[in-house]
Amino acid sequence: MARTHSEQTIKILFGQARRCAYPGCNSPLIFDDADRGVRTPVAEIAHIRSASPDGPRHDPDFPGDQLNREGNLLLLCGTHHRAVDQAHAVFPVEELLEWKQAQVAQAGGSAISDAEIVAYVKSMESALQSVYEALQVTTAVDIVPARRVPNTYMTMSTDLFEALQRESPEQVEAFTKELIGVSVANVGFSGVDVVGAGLELVLHRAKDTPAPWFFPTGWSPQSLPHRLQGRSSAVWYAEADSARGLVIEAIQKYKTYPTHVRAFASYADGTREVGVWVPFLDFAEQTRLYDAERLIQIRSVAPVDLAGPPVN
What is the pLDDT of residues 244-269, one digit of tens each? Predict the structure, then answer.
């Protein structure tokens, strides 16, 4: 992460203050244990007006070149820095400017050496990097076979379905509808707004590519757009019958056949995540797009490129 405060600015801030700027807080800015020879700056640099448009107390009219200057900064302990920024609505700019004035008036200041400034800057950059990484949105998408069962949905592999058919045929009868699912897993800490999910096809030696197929929301437990919180996942479903229709339409329109398929998810910020390309026949088998007899017929005449990586 780029440094946001110069070493000169840090020296000025510590040089004009002794304690946390929060009224009544006597937390020192520097931890000093002379007996152990430990002396470490522990205060945090807080913005009176946020540099980020969606940050606390952001003022679009405040000069951008002054956001990280001493006049827009004050020193707070870790407890009060978080509280003041999280509850920024009740800590307005005007009040923080008063704190700033009172902090500058503190007698003596806190002497800080160049070596301590360098160590302090490194610790800030490390903390900023950790925050940056935590705020990144990391998602993964995948195709999952599924069934509609009474009152819910169930992700179900072909092997599991066939095992249930053998062991509990009466239970399988309750699985009323074959579905294809696109699973979206948010493995980061920040939420993401999902606005669409579906499948893409690659066609054998076709000059054009079919438009992505966005799943309708009628078969899914959550509507779109959907806020997918960090460390969570959701699945959007479509009828297998609709997928068969999509394949037939592509074959008729482009006079060729699909070789690969992959899942995708679209997000409100205009970005998207895609899964890996899956050979079409593997996809058809995993999702029971065709019955076993039909798959045997297809495989018996399938060209080589139906089993390898996509060629276009």
Answer: 888 888 888 888 888 899 999 999 98
pTM: 0.55
Q: How far is residue 64's CA from residue 143's CA, in Å, rounded to a whole number? A: 46
User: Is the separation of the CB atoms in 275 and 142 below 8 Å?
Assistant: yes
For the record, the structure tokens of 127 come out as 């903390």
Inter-residue contact 95 to 23 (CB < 8 Å): no
Q: What is the distance between the alpha carbons of residues 247 and 243, in angstroms, rounded to a whole number?
A: 6
| Spatial separation of the C-alpha atoms in residues 92 and 98, rounded to whole Å | 10
All structural domains of the chain with their residue ranges: 7-135, 139-306
